[in-house]
Structure formats: C-alpha cells, structure tokens
From TrEMBL:
Residues 1-27 are annotated as: Disordered. It comes from Aeromicrobium alkaliterrae. It is found in: Cytoplasm. This is Tryptophan--tRNA ligase. Homodimer. Belongs to the class-I aminoacyl-tRNA synthetase family.
Length: 349
C-alpha cells in the first residue's frame, strides 16, 4: 500500500464503514465504582448497536503509577468481568486487554514525537495525580499517559469516545494530535469526538460531594464499589454527607450532596429528577437516603452475582479477550502500517 502524501486515507471514517466507538477503564482498583458504571459503562453499552465498538482494559496505563504485578493480573480479570456484567456484549463489541494489541504502544511512540512538552504539561489529570504523591515521585509514564490514550483512540480511527467529564481534556488533546499529524503527513486519522452524557458525566463522592467519585481515593467511604455488599452500599448511602437544611431540591451549587443522590437515583431508575423531587416533597433527606440505599443495594447484589459467575470461568474470559484482541488487531494493524508509511519509515520487504 504505497500512498502519496495527498492521497485520502483509506481508513478514515466516512468511507462507508459503520462509525466506531472506543473506550477503556483502568484496572487500578479491586473494583470499578458507580462513577465508572454510570459515566462510562452505561454509555458503552448504549452505543454497541449503532457503533462498531472497541472496549478495553488499559493495563499499559495502569503501570504509570506504583502497582503490584499479581494484583494487576487479578484486577484485569475483575475488570473484564465487570465490563461484561455491565452489559458489554462480546458478540457485538470487541472487548480486549490493551497489552494484547501492541499497536497501541507503537503508535504512542510516534505521537510522542509530535506532542509538545508544554502541551503535555498542561494536562490537569497529570497535575492532580502527580501532586497527590509529590511530583518527584511521578513517573514519565504518567506524564505521557494522555499520548498513549490518544494512540488508543486513533489506532481504531474511532469516531466517538464515551467518557466521563474528567477525560474531556485528553480527548481534546487527541483531536489536536490527529489534526496535526494529518496536516503534516497527509490524511491518516479520523478526528474523534468525546461522548459525554451530561446527567452522569460526573458522579461525586458520597463523603465529599464536591469532588468526583474516584477509584484512587484513599478512603472508599464515599465510593460505591461494584463489589460492595448490599449492606455496605445501603450504609454508605445512609451516611452520605448532605447539606444543611431538610428540603429535597436539586441545586448543584447550594446542595451538592442531595443533588448527587438525586442524579444517582435518576440514573439508576431512568426517572426524571423533577419527578423524583416531586415524589419526595415535604419529606426529609433521610427518606431519600433510605430509598436510594435500598435501590442501590439491590443493584449491587445482582451485579455482584453476575460478576462472580463470570470470574468463576477464567478460561471463558480468556477466550472472550483473545477474540476481542484478534478483532482489534485487524483494525489497528492497517492504521499503524499507514502511519509508518506516512512517517517515512522504510518497511521490511
Ligand atoms: P482514577 O482515580 O485512578 O483516575 P477513575 O475512578 O477516575 O480512576 P478511570 O479508569 O480513570 O477511573 O476512568 C474510567 C472511566 O470512568 C472514564 O471514562 C472516566 O471518565 C469515568 N469516570 C471515572 N470517575 C467518574 C465519575 N465520578 N463520574 C463519571 N464518570 C467517571
Ligand atoms: Mg480517572
């Protein structure tokens, strides 16, 4: 496939194929949490019919912070099981482990060459995460993480990237890198768009309703993990920090605690926030907490059963992941080949 600089990319979107969706979620905790579920997994599942979908477990990203190899291995299986339990359907979507598709890392190296040092330094996730542990302890991998993420997306010529609000800046960087490469070396990449569903783009910590629910929080008292028992979850919701006052209204600025509970309630039941507020008119915070606690307890109960069943059959998980990686490589390999050619690399004969 020899292509002149001006040739249109044969791989980009708009060439008759179905649009593609791509996303991942790091296996850096013993379980995903409710923020990952609503902010990411639910959107992944919703896109599987309309889009050719690629969903993966970013183990290469997970090693950019201090980690334990045995734990990473186990968490990778848990991640796969929880993605499947969320409704990712391997018959429709490619579900795979990032390191099974070496093209991600190969493309990341190329993109490193067109990313500015200052540009990478402006990424707020790097600033936040390196500040947490003291910037001297931050790895170079953590710094270049967004460039690997750009490679994850661009290698599939993805059109849509379903993520939570915290990833918006990284998708923006990805768009810039795609445009820059296309401009310098000829049309190569599809320029992707973030797919961020406002209502669930940011689920907040139950103990600190002004910061995002996050797997890497030191305390999980305000984090609803998908492996929590129904009892633990009901308790976490009952002890959620709420605001002064008693009236149940949705006001993100003045009453972030109650607003967060209402968002979760709405996401879980599919009911409008206004309708829920009307139902609780005249009642106290406690009523809402007990009701939501019960609903969420039931949800994690069912979710946990399904996850455990999937985890009991590792051979089946391995088969699903191998098939997903095979499908992914069919798309990733031609993109990398085109990139190498555009970059001026002599290809082996
Ligand atoms: P970490 O704290 O280690 O960054 P995380 O909890 O943010 O972990 P990620 O693997 O970074 O998890 O994110 C996986 C996906 O879940 C991303 O699409 C991210 O935007 C989304 N997500 C994470 N936290 C939330 C949240 N609180 N609300 C909505 N979406 C979220
Ligand atoms: Mg994150």
């Amino acid at each position: 496939m020899m292509l002149a600089m001006s040739d249109a990319s044969p791989l980009r979107s708009g060439t008759g194929r179905r649009p593609r969706a791509l996303s991942g979620a790091q296996p850096t905790a013993d379980s995903y949490h409710l923020g990952n579920y609503f902010g990411a997994f639910r959107q992944w599942v919703a896109l599987q019919d309309e889009f050719e979908a690629f969903y993966f477990i970013p183990d290469l990203h997970a090693i950019t912070v201090d980690y334990d190899p045995a734990l990473l291995r186990e968490r990778t299986y848990i991640a796969a099981a929880q993605m499947l339990a969320s409704g990712v359907d391997p018959a429709r979507s490619a579900l795979f482990v990032q390191s099974h598709v070496p093209e991600h890392a190969q493309l990341a190296w190329i993109l490193n060459g067109i990313t500015g040092f200052g540009e990478a330094g402006r990424m707020t996730q790097f600033k936040d995460k390196s500040a947490k542990n003291g910037s001297d302890n931050a790895s170079v991998g953590l710094f270049t993480y967004p460039i690997l993420m750009a490679a994850d997306i661009l290698i599939y010529q993805a059109d849509k990237v379903p993520v939570g609000e915290d990833q918006r800046q990284h998708v923006e960087l990805t768009r810039n890198l795609a445009q820059r490469f296309n401009h310098r070396f000829g049309p190569t990449f599809t320029v992707p768009e973030a797919h961020i569903v406002k209502a669930t783009a940011k689920i907040y910590d139950l103990q600190d309703p002004t910061s995002k629910m996050s797997g890497s929080n030191a305390s999980h008292a305000g984090v609803v993990d998908l492996t929590d028992t129904p009892k633990q979850v009901a308790k976490k919701v009952r002890s959620a920090v709420t605001d002064s006052g008693t009236e149940i209204v949705y006001d993100l600025a003045a009453k972030p605690g109650i607003a967060n509970l209402l968002s979760i309630y709405s996401a879980l039941t599919g009911r409008e926030i206004a309708e829920i507020v009307a139902e609780y008119e005249g009642q106290q915070y406690g009523h809402l907490k007990v009701a939501l606690g019960d609903l969420l307890a039931e949800f994690v109960g069912t979710f946990g059963d399904r996850t455990r069943e999937l985890l009991d059959d590792r051979a089946e998980l391995d088969r699903i992941l191998a098939a997903g990686a095979e499908r992914a490589r069919e798309v990733a390999a031609p993109t990398l080949e085109l990139v190498y050619e555009r970059s001026g690399f002599v290809r082996p004969v």
